[in-house]
Amino acid sequence: MNDLTVTRQTFDEVMVPVFAPAAFVPDRGLGSRVWDTQGRDYIDFAGGIAVTALGHAHPELLKVLHEQGSKLWHIGNGYTNEPVLRLAKRLEDLTFADRAFFANSGAEANEAALKLARRVAFERYGADKAEIISFTQSFHGRTFFTVSVGGQPKYSEGFGPVPAGITHLPYNDIEAAKKAIGPQTCAVIVEPIQGEGGVIPADPAFLKALREACDQYNALLIFDEVQTGVGRSGHFYAYQDTGVTPDILTTAKALGNGFPIGAMLTTTDLAAHFKVGVHGTTYGGNPLGAAIAEKVVELVSDPKVLEGVRTRSEVLKGHLAKLDGRFGLFTQVRGKGLLIGAELTDAYKGRAKDFVTAAGEHGVIMLMAGPDVLRFVPSLIMPLDDMSEGFARLTKAFGEIVGANAQAVSR
């Protein structure tokens, strides 16, 4: 038994202060519920930021964790292993891809994708074809390269000069994209639904225009599906419902249901430019992570599970409509599958954090997507009773905010 007592205050004493965690400390989870160190229960609408797609402590994942954990956790990149090869085959069978590179996170998957795109352009067309086009409000990770490519300057400012050759365009603006993509462009990276940027779906015509422009100028189209992938949109990958196929796809978050793993998927032709030693990773594709991810992919790719995501999406939107009908909170509810954003009205602009805090006080874990948007990314198999219970709690939590706001306005 560990007798070292820690509390939420310990965080402020021992951790680098890049996060501002909630006042409660989660201790254990089961399905779509979490209990804190005081034994209080919470309905989980956050899923560890769209990660625990099959909920907490899923019995089939626990079984794989124990079985593989008793065999081999890690072996290093001088060897391959059976779980990672099975995982690669599963992902390739489900997608356009025929080659996979495994990493530990979405940021690393995007780093690999961007490096591959630059490498392909360099080897095929020379050093001048190096421009990467991204979109405002996009988010692609926290490495210095990916945060510079991401379209939110607040994350890249204050760290010195950013890498050259990165252009940011307005999202969903077809004309701006057609003007900017040219002979100098090596890659365009886009989220099919901007997650951190406010849960904004891409217009299919916009994605089609990107595909056509990339083809015209021999640029690669990269889909960042770190948040939208592995069933989140109601399709295994969101691109499969757009009529557009990328050259490179990145995936992470839900891929390991909480075990850190990410992947870059691409074609044989493009993968050939990553020769031995050109890129690498120590932990990426380790047998423990790969075994868990293989089971996640098997479970989530079941058509019944994906159909269940689409069903739950409608139920969740119905709950939000009811909440809005009662309190008049939202200007728009948008997204796909179980990646849903509810934008707050002007009366509550900039106060998404207040709603998240109030939700926690009433036993609901949830997220924001910028200061004006509440984000819902629950388990893809969330029991409908848990969803109803969560919204009953949110009704109380949001009612308090609305009541306090009305009092303040009347003063």
TrEMBL record:
Localization (cell): Cytoplasm
Cofactor binding: number and manner: Binds 1 pyridoxal phosphate per subunit.
Residues given in the record as N(2)-acetyl-L-ornithine binding sites: R142, T281
Keyword field contains Transferase: yes
InterPro entries per record: Ac/SucOrn_transaminase_bac, AcOrn/SuccOrn_fam, Aminotrans_3, Aminotrans_3_PPA_site, Class-III_PLP-dep_AT, PyrdxlP-dep_Trfase, PyrdxlP-dep_Trfase_major, PyrdxlP-dep_Trfase_small
Entry protein name: Acetylornithine aminotransferase
Assembly, per entry: Homodimer.
Gene coding for it: astC
Domain of life: Bacteria
